[in-house]
Every structure is written in structure tokens, then in C-alpha cells.
Records
---
Amino acid sequence: MRVSLFLVGALLWAQKVDTLWVKSANIVCQTCRRTLIKGLSTQRGIRAVEVYVPEKTIRVVYRPDKTTPDRIRQAIARLGYDADGVSRDWKAYERLPACCKADKPH
């Protein structure tokens, strides 16, 4: 019984993942970072998210059998952030805290 549970766990862990790097010009603070991590972590197929504020980049590790780069970019846009060539959802952007709508990083 133990061995079979271990093998199932190992097979799940070994599933193929890809990494997507996304540029977003309107990441300006740690609140942006937390918003993106929290919002993306709940999306199907996303395994890990990291946001690099100074570089204005998002690294997403995902399962390609569960989601696609286009879906991930759309999810970022729905959170109120630009995602490569995908424009932010303006209603979501307006709901962001004031610090996230600043012109300059802080």
C-alpha cells in the first residue's frame, strides 16, 4: 500500500511543467506582487508564480496540459495588469489600491 501511494505521488510530481516569462509595465510595488501571486496561484494548472518588481516581470510555472500562455496572460490582464501584448482590464485596474496605480516604482 505504501509503495503504491509513493508511486502515485511521484508520478504526479513528475508531470511536465513549462515556464512562462511575462513583462508587465504597470508592476510598481509589493502590493502588485502580492496581488499577482495570489490571483494567479488560484488558476488551474499554475504551479508557481514569482513577481520581480524592479524588472517588471512575472515568472509562471505551469502545466501545459492544464493551461496555456494565452490563458495566463488573460488571467494577468483580468487582475488589472498588462501582460506582454495583452492590455489590462480597466475595471480591474480601477479596483487596485492607489499605490498600484502610481506612475513610478516605489
---
Amino acid sequence: MPVKRTMAVTLAVGLVVAGCGTGTYDPETPEAKAYFAAPCPEPGVKPASDKEFTYWSMWTKDEPQGKVLGKAVRCFQEKTGVKVKVQWLGRKGYSQNLGPALNTDNVPDLFDQDVTKVAAAIVTPGGTQSVEDVYAMKVGEGDKTVRDVLSPSSIDFPQNKDKDGNNFLVPYETLSSAWWFNRDQTKNVQQPKTMAELYSLFQSSQTKDRSAVSQDGDISFYNMYFFTQLAERFTGAGGLYAAASDRSGQSWRNPGLLKAAEETAKLRPFFIDGWDAAKFPQNQQRWADGDASFLYLGSWAPSEVREYLTKQGVDTKVTFGSFQFPMPEGATHDIVEQITIGFGVTKKAKHPEAAKAFAAYFLNKELLRGIPDVASNLVPRPDVDVPEDLKSLKAVLDDPAKEHVLQYDGLESLAGGRWTTDVFDPANLALLKGQLTPQQFIDRLASTQATFWRNQG
């Protein structure tokens, strides 16, 4: 087995922040300097009546995204005369602040969060209003509207619809995921065409000092990646969500889902020693230190890894490469997962006109480019350049031949998130640990789910 190197566990990024595509703000990079020095663009829409609005942000003001949105706020105020009252609440704002406020009159006009969390915690209790009118607003680039500049896949998908069939989120950041490797360490890696090629790649990368795959197993949604990525290639967009919504649980008896479980189980022998006992971000950091060749993680991997290396003060450099899961034998859906972060407008908003005008304004290319230039993340505009680290992943997202699927097919929004914690997570962890066979995994999902939905009433 590979030798395990001892290292300090630095909880520089808490569990709440993990997966949100953030990092350390560096104002000295050429891209950041150019972005903040650039003049404010003219808005495509100026509110006719609203003179102010409130905005509760999922970012803190000192995070890269907070800095970028802070510039957009200043520009909007300068160009429209509308006052923006911002509260920088951080990641738990939707659960600790917005959710409890829905039954009061103290709600913001505008908020932001990822689409799955919004669907589970805000849309379900009826806390949002339609943003269909925002898509028709101009962004300040001639006659271009919000819908004109955004990728259709970032807007039109079932989990972005409220009970009336209207979109409830205007996206401004896109997250995806991939197998990551260091091009300087693991050379000549190409996109595997089959699962057999993937396993062969992992096998050849292992040495006595290096594992194939690093994994922080204490984060349940990191553990979800493997089965869901493979299963979606059998079911397509919406297929897993439909299976998980089946009150009988019998939809899990799909042969493709069993095949996905079998392929997932084959990954376990390649995981780094102690993957299921480590505390995030220990094994992510071990990958950065060269203890493993591959890491499956979201598009925030480069920024988080670089933040860690910078804080360690080490000379280690990572030249990021990435590739996608191949199609398992018998699968028919060539998918790529994505999750959008965007703006929502509350049902009780007092100043929806101004809030919606700001949402459209931030989609202006000169403002939105701050997400890649300052925060090193992806955006749902195909015409905005991205960092070198993310170009291969961006190419996959922009590939018109790919079928776009919401991350985990939106499973995290089911029953306010309780389906994943009560039904899926325990069974999935047992499968990855080898405590359940693939067939037992499917059987457990079917039976546990039926009980779960009966208890929901």
C-alpha cells in the first residue's frame, strides 16, 4: 500500500465554505488590478421608481466574489443613483437569516445562493418570485439581453422552475467538477474513453509513495460525486431525481443504476489510505503535496489548492489538468454536471424593480469577468475568458453535444435536503467502504426510501 505521509491538518477553509468556489483575494494580480481599475459600464436598465433596495449576499465582503460584487454595487449606485443596502452574510445566510425571515416582513429584495439550496429552503415555502422578466432586460451592451448572453443550459432546466413553471434564479457563476491532476507530476494524461481505461490509468499512477486517488470522505457531498456521475450517464437529466422521488423506491431497480453502483465500487481500492477517517481538507492538501495522483473535485479545486500552498509557503507548484468520467459500458447519456449560483428576488420584495435591474447589470461582461479574473471561477457567459486551469473544464461545459445535468441531478433539494442525509448518504458511504455490495446498496436505497417517503406523509 502507498506510504502515508504525516502532515498538519489546516482547517483554513471550513466545511460551509467547501465547494463554494472561493479562495484568498490577491489584489496584486494583473487581472485583479485591471478589473478594479476599469471604469463602470453603463447599465442597460435604470429603475424608474425604486431609489433603493436591500441585498443579502452569500459572500463575505473580503472574499474574491464579495470584492467583485462590491464593485458592481458601487458602479450601480454611481450610474443609477439607487442606494444598495448590502449585508454580507456568508454561506449560512440562506438558512440562518433568509429562511427564518420568510414569515416576516423583514426580507431582502435580492439574495444569492446556489440553485439547489434556493429550491430546497426558499422556493419550496413560496419565498421567491419569478425572474422571467430579468431575462428580457438589457445588460448594457447594445441590445443584448440577459437571455442573449447566458448559456441556455444555465437557465432552462427543471430545477430552476417554481411551482408555476417560472424560473426563480438569474445565474452569474457556474460550478462543475472533474478529475484533477498535476501535469508536472502525472504526465501525458488523456481523457479516458472507457472505465477500463480509467482504472488502468489509476493503476499505472500508483507507487509505494503515491496513491491513485485522494478523497476527503468526511464530506458527504464529495462522496456523492462518484455514483451520481456514473448513474447520470445511464439515466440522463432528471432520471436520478425521478428515481429518488419514487415513493415506492422501486425505481432503483433500474439495471443502469446497478451498473453505476458496480463501477463505483471498483474505485474504492484506488483511494488513499485513511480517506474515510481524515478531516477536510486534509486529503485535498495531501493531493497538493503529491501524495496522490488524482482528485475528483469541483471547479474550485485550483483556487483552494493554491490558497493552501501559498499559506504553507512551499515552493510546490501545480499545473492543473482535468478530464471527465468516461461513459460506462451500456450508458447512453454523455453528460456534464453543473450547478449555478445566482440572484433570486423574494416574494415580499419591496423594491423588485431595482433588485432585478441590478441582477441584469451584473451580467454585463465588464462586471462579470471579475468572477474568473479575481475569483478564478467559471461564469455562465460563453464569451468570458477563464483562467488557464479551467479551460479544459469550460470547453466541456460549452460543448453543445453534452447533456447538461444539475449537480447530483438536484438530489440535495429533495425534502429540504433530508433525502440525501437520511436515505442516500449512509448507503453511499457503506458502498464506498465496501460494507455493502452494489446489489445491497440498491436494495437499501429502495427500502429506506419507501420508508422515508411514507414518513413524510
---
Amino acid sequence: MKYLKYSFIVLFILSLASCDEDQFTSVKTINFPEHESKLAVTSQISATPPGGNIVFPSVFVSHSLGIVDNDQYDIIDDATVELYKDGEPFYEFYYEPLTAEYMCDLNLDFTEGTYTLKVDSPDYEAVEATQTMPKKAEILSTTYQFEAIPFDFDNDLFDLMTVKIQDPAGEENFYSFDVYFEITDTTNGSVRKEGIYTDTDDPLFEFGYNIYHILPDVTFDGNTYDIRIVQNSEWVGIGQNEKLSAAIVRITTLTKDLYIYETSRYINSDAQGNPFAEPVLVHSNIDDGFGVFTLQNIEEFRHEF
């Protein structure tokens, strides 16, 4: 029995030694189709928030590369970039070499309506995309509780702000939020504004890439909904002669294309470096090209302390 055991070991070693590399290697040639370079356009435009800074929209124009191309993309500076509103010319952007973007130097009033971005370049096929400015969120009321809930494994209690909105019926809407505080100097009455990191414990929110929390209205279409916003007001730098006078919440309504772009870009980024993840394509809505054109509208509500 002892010799039989050794015989099996010797045979196993010999079998391994007799295996060459070709037995474990399979080579398959993949022929990629020839890539036709197209315009790649990115423009994300926001309506000016109530009482906020003027928004100057911009458009970035480049071109696409094939999956195996090693070349650097070129900035296209000879394009004609035009924006139309409800079918009528609205603005023609100009190229700014310092930012390598097509810029606007006017305070455009992006009210509700349908906007079409058209980009034409001598070396590429013209492209365009259309978006409808979403309605502003209808904010009904707010509540604010200091040090109300535990959150994110932190030892401190966090503040909870709830924002009740009325969602329009029969249409898809997507919401995000941010909060900043007004701080009043009790000696001279001067007021300054201070932004703060915000989060939510609402499981209905989805993650975006640059817009971190996005709420689709699929579960409350046409009804009211309480958005839960979590923050820590103690992180705001308040001086000895200062006090919190108000919390200003901004609820942003996003177009569906912006929602899909943000969530797909987040998943794409999260999958990078993971050999077990499925490939994720980032959403594009540019006809006959690549990239995104999106709109968002902003409503603001003041909660007095």
C-alpha cells in the first residue's frame, strides 16, 4: 500500500512535468470595427437659483476615440454652437481659449420651455440634443430638529430637516437637495451664508456621480413626500457674537437624462478596477454623436430659527 501511494505521487509529478504552456493557453483574436469619430458634446445647464449667483452656461466640444485608440482627443475650437428655445434662436456661444469651452457672457433667463442645443463643425457631422426645462419643485413646508438622530456610525447626533414637496401627477420627476445656513452677527446685524455637507437616511434616494443623492418620484407620483435631510449644524463655524438665523434648502428638479447620466456615471466609476463587474456604459443623449445636454431647475425655501 505504501509503494502504491508513492507510485501515485510519482505519476502526478510526471503528468505535471509533461504539461506545456500551450495546454493552459487559449489565444483568440478580436477584430474591432473601424471607429468613426463623432462630435462629443457636454453641457449641463441650470436655471439661476432664487437669490443665487448668475449662471453662465458653457459647452465643451471634442470628438470620440475608438476603444483601442492611443491618441489624445482634440479640442474643437471651430464649431458653431447654438441654443434654441421652443424652436427659436436663443443664444450662440463663443469659444473661450482660456477654458477650452464655448461660453456665454449674458445672464440668460432659463425659464420653462424646450431647449435644443445644436453643434456643427466642418470636420464632423452636426449633432443636437433637446431637453425640456423641468418645473420647479413645489415646497409646502419644512421642519428642523437639532441633534435628532444618530447617523453614519458617528458618536454625535445629527440634525434632521424634513422638506415636504408636492409632486406633479402623471409625469416623471427627479429631485436632489442642498442646504446652507444664514448666520447673523448679533452686534451689527450683518448676515453671511455658509454651506454644509448634507446626507439622507432615505433608502429611496439613488447615488449620482456629481449630484450625490437623487430621488425619483416613482413611488409617490402625484402625492406629497417628506424629503429627509441629515446634517450637523455644529460643523458650521459660528463666532462668539453670531447665531444661526435660518436654514435655506434648495430642491433641484432634474431632467430624466441628467438622472440617468449621473447614476450611470456613478456605477461606471464604482465598477472600475473590479474584474467581476459588468461593463457599464455612461448615458448619452446627443443625436448622431456622444455626450450629454441636460437641464435642471431650482426652488428655494427659507426655514427661520
